[in-house]
Write a structure and sequence with these properties.
The complex is a heterodimer.
Chain A: H1 4-32, H2 40-52, H3 55-67, H4 75-99, H5 109-149
Helix pairs in contact in A: 1-5, 2-5, 3-4, 4-5
Chain B: H1 3-17, H2 19-33, H3 38-50, H4 54-67, H5 85-107, H6 115-148
Helix pairs in contact in B: 1-5, 1-6, 2-6, 3-6, 4-5, 5-6
The chains are: A mainly alpha, B mainly alpha.
């Protein structure tokens, strides 16, 4: 269970880092990679897993979605999960410890792994919340743009 | 004077300065939500009152913009903005209130280095959001009342 100090730091992190990075992440996919915004089905699936599962389960879900044999018409989904996997892997292996200094210096490997899992569940929950909110906004803009062009 | 009192005073002073902006956005809310969708605004106020992070409030506004056409409607009677209601509100919170938070933090000499400073900055931002949204909702209620009773001038 993260300490009150860790939870406080996570709140700061969510506002200062995760929110702007989730906005940039989604905009890059849609504007630079020319992906379509996520469908409601994908949004609901991702959000449900982020809200209820442990980080290990979320990680499995993301890798499963990344590795599925998507048809060409759904390559955007594969791109999203590939990028999401990269983001969380870097967060877990490097940024959590080196950039945000969130780990509390536990000694046993099992304790460290459990702490990382608990912190990553909270980080991923917030990042996905920000991602889904931005996705909804971009979906509306994209639909309005298409309507104007018709 | 202790730090908490200093923060409350500074936030209250800023609230005096953004009152006119809150009135304009409250009028916009009344134009798009009318009388029947009061809960749209009271829910926003509740979210802001209970949120631990400013990003929770911004995410809520984005979700509403995506879900509900009223949040995307412009206010043709106000020539100072041609944005939809939600976008206008979000932009104000993200930009104008962030500037006001900066001003408060400078006056109170709150830096951007330690965890404690980051927590204080987050708290001040949320307090400013709550004050601002409260003023927006009050203006919305007042405007709807005037329109319902035919007292609109």
């Amino acid at each position: 269970m993260p300490s009150p100090a860790q939870l406080d730091t996570l709140c700061n992190l969510s506002d200062m880092v995760l929110y702007p990075e989730a906005v940039a992440f989604m905009r890059r996919l849609i504007y630079d990679e020319e992906c379509m915004p996520l469908s409601s089905a994908q949004v609901n699936g991702l959000q449900n897993v982020a809200n209820t599962a442990s980080y290990a389960d979320l990680e499995r879900f993301i890798k499963h979605q990344r590795d599925r044999n998507w048809p060409e018409s759904k390559r955007d989904i594969k791109i999203l999960y590939t990028e999401l996997d990269k983001f969380f892997t870097t967060m877990k292996n490097k940024r959590l410890r080196d950039e945000f200094r969130l780990l509390q210096g536990k000694h046993h490997v099992q304790e460290v792994n459990q702490e990382i899992d608990e912190l990553m569940a909270l980080v991923a929950h917030d990042f996905i919340q920000h991602l889904v909110a931005e996705n909804g906004l971009l979906a509306i803009k994209s639909a309005a743009g298409r309507a104007r062009r018709r | 004077m202790n730090r908490e009192m200093q923060i409350i005073i500074e936030v209250t002073n800023q609230a005096e300065n953004f009152y006119e902006d809150a009135v304009r956005i409250g009028d916009h809310a009344a134009y798009v939500m009318k009388d029947g969708h009061r809960s749209q605004l009271t829910n926003l106020e509740t979210i802001a009152d209970s949120a631990l992070k400013a990003s929770d409030v911004l995410d809520y506004i984005k979700r509403q913009i995506a879900r509900d056409t009223r949040w995307r409607q412009r206010f043709p009677l106000d020539h100072t903005s041609n944005l939809g209601f939600g976008e206008r509100l979000k932009l104000y919170l993200e930009q104008d209130l962030a500037q006001r938070r900066k001003a408060v933090c400078e006056r109170l000499k709150i830096g951007e280095t330690t965890d404690e400073e980051h927590t204080l900055r987050r708290r001040i931002y949320l307090l400013l959001m709550r004050q601002f949204l409260r003023q927006v909702v009050v203006q919305y209620e007042y405007k709807v009342y005037l329109e319902n009773t035919g007292k609109e001038m």
